[in-house]
Design goal:
There is one protein chain. By secondary structure, the protein is of the alpha+beta class. The chain has a single domain, classed as Roll (CBS-domain), CATH 3.10.580. Helix content is 40%, strand content 21%. The protein contains 6 helices and 5 strands, in the order βαββαααββαα. A 3-stranded mixed beta sheet has the order 1-2-3. 19% of the residues are buried.
């Protein structure tokens, strides 16, 4: 689990979000208000809700385009439970919360690493998860 999750507040623009995601080399941001998760913003959200609709990223608030129904896990769940939850909900990123407080993030790549699969498979998963960087 990634414990230092990159977050952003709702007042930011889509342009701000893209700059931060590019700077950190990540595919999502968790949108928070203090410690509570309000949403998640993924590359898919940006493609579908900004680029495809020809919206101006500087004028588009992330609160207008983020996914509000966030699927979350808890820090006590087993790896197989997290993987099943992600698969069933078709998500590649799973914020981990204790109560309402964000404590981490699990990605598909994290699951591949933890499952002790061979190095070639981990590299393939990382490549597929980060195709936007290629």
């Amino acid at each position: 689990m990634i414990e230092e999750v990159v977050t952003l507040k709702t007042g930011a623009s889509a342009h701000d979000a893209v700059k931060l995601m590019n700077k950190k080399g990540i595919g999502c941001l968790v949108i928070v208000d203090n410690i509570e998760i309000l949403g998640i913003l993924t590359e898919r959200d940006l493609l579908e809700r900004v680029l495809e609709k020809c919206r101006d990223p500087r004028e588009t608030s992330i609160s207008d385009i983020m996914t509000r129904q966030v699927i979350t896990g808890n820090p006590d769940m087993q790896l197989i439970e997290a993987a099943r939850l992600m698969f069933e909900n078709k998500v590649k990123k799973l914020p981990i919360v204790r109560g309402r407080r964000l404590v981490g993030l699990i990605t598909v790549t994290d699951i591949a690493r933890a499952a002790s699969v061979d190095e070639k498979t981990i590299e393939l998963v990382e490549t597929l998860s980060n195709m936007h960087l290629v």
